[in-house]
Amino acid sequence: MATKRPLIIVTRKLPDAIETRMMELFDARLRSDDAPMTPAQLTEAVRQADVLVPTVTDRIDAALLAEAGPNLKLIASFGTGVDHIDLAGARARGITVTNTPGVLTEDTADMTMALILGVSRRLVEGERLLREGKWEGWAPTFMLGHRIWGKRLGIVGMGRIGQALARRARGFGLSIHYHNRRRVPEATERELEATYWESLDQMLARMDIISVNCPHTPATYHLLSARRLKLLRPECIVVNTARGEVIDEAALTRMLVNREIAGAGLDVFEHEPAVNPKLLRLDNVLLLPHMGSATLEGRIDMGQKVLINIKTFIDGHRPPDRVLEAML
Ligand code: 8YV
C-alpha cells in the first residue's frame, strides 16, 4: 500500500525550475499568485503542512506556532536570515528549522559594493538628472562625488558576506577594518589584510564607510543606535544589506536630514516594505527594495538548498542547513 506523501506548503512563488522539482519530489502545495499569504492563510498552512517553506515576508512567531498542527515537523525557510522565525518556539514544539546559507554570499557582497560605489559616486542622482533632461553638459565641478580608493571601510559582522565584501573592497583600494563578536582566524585576517576592532565604538569613530553585514538577532537589534551613530564622522557613509533592524532607522534618518553624515545606501529597512518617508526625499541616500540576493542564479541555488533540506529530513537524516539558536 502506498504511504501518504508529506505535504509541503510553500508560501511564495519560487523559480519555475524549483517548483517543478518540488512537485516531482513531494506532495507540494504552491502559490498561484505572488502575494504574501494573509495571516489566515498562514495559520491554515501551519495547521495542515508537514513541511512549511516560508520566506522573510512570513512572520513565524509564537502565536502562529501555537496554531501548528501535529504534523508540522520542518520549517525549511527560503533565505539565510531567520529573524522572522521564533526559533526557541519551534524547538519547544519539536519543529526543525533550516535555512539556505552560503549561496547568496557573493550576490549580496556585490550589491553592497554597488551601494558603496553608488552613494560615493552619486550614480542614482546622475542618472535621474539625465533622464529628467536636466543635463546641460560637462563641467569641472559638476556631480562631484568622493573617491573610494584609499578610504577606510568598517565592516560590522565579518561572516561569509562580510568577508566576501572585504575581498572585493581590497580590489577597490579600500583598507579593511572590522568588528565581529569573535575575531576571525589570523589566516583570514592576513588574507583580507583586515584590522580587528574589539570596540565597535572606536571603529565607528574612525571610518569613511560603514557596512552592516551581521544578522539581526536580539543582540544586534539597533546595534547602530542613536548614540553610536553620533560617533560617525561627518564624511562617513553607511550601507546596509543585512537587516534594517540592526540600525536605528529613525536616528539614521535624522542624521541624514541634518547632514551629520554624508550619505547612506540602504537595501533593507526596519519596517519593510515601509520606508521612512523622510528618506525618500533625500538625495544623499540610495534606496533599494531588498534586492541584495536577487539574482536568478541565487534564487535557484536557494531553492535547491530548500529541496535538499526537505529531502534529507524526510528520509530521516539531519538536514545540512539546520539552524540552532546557539549558532546565532
Ligand atoms: C532573501 C535575505 O531574499 O536570505 C536572506 O536572509 O535577506 C534575502 O536576501 C530573503 O530572505 C528570502 O527569504
Radius of gyration: 22 Å
Share of residues in strands = 5-15%
Largest β sheet strand count, sense and barrel closure: 7 strands, parallel
What binds here, in terms of ligands, is: 2-keto-D-gluconic acid
Please provide the ordered H/E string of secondary-structure elements. EHEHEHEHEHHEHEHEHEHEHEHEH
Total number of strands: 12
What tags apply to this protein structure?
Rossmann fold, seven-stranded parallel β-sheet, 2 domains, binds 2-keto-D-gluconic acid, alpha/beta, five-stranded parallel β-sheet, 328 residues, 12 strands
Write a compact overview of the structure shown.
The chain contains 13 helices and 12 strands.
Folded structure, characterized:
There is one protein chain. The protein has 328 residues and is of the alpha/beta class. It has 2 domains: 7-103 and 296-324, NAD(P)-binding Rossmann-like Domain (Rossmann fold), CATH 3.40.50; 105-287, Rossmann fold (3-Layer(aba) Sandwich), CATH 3.40.50.720. The chain is built from 13 helices and 12 strands. The chain has helices at 16-25, 39-48, 62-65, 87-92, 105-120, 123-131, 160-171, 186-192, 200-204, 226-229, 249-257, 277-280, 296-314, and strands spanning 7-10, 27-29, 51-53, 74-76, 96-98, 152-156, 175-179, 194-196, 209-212, 237-240, 263-266, 285-287. The strands form 2 sheets. A 7-stranded parallel sheet has the order 8-7-6-9-10-11-12. β4, α4 and β5 (96-98) form a beta-alpha-beta unit. The longest helix has 19 residues, at 296-314. The chain starts with 6 loop residues before the first strand and ends in a 14-residue tail after the last helix. The mean pLDDT is 97. 2-keto-D-gluconic acid is lined by residues 55-56, 78-81, 104, 292-293. Residues 55-56, 78-81, 104, 292-293 line the site of 2-keto-D-gluconic acid.
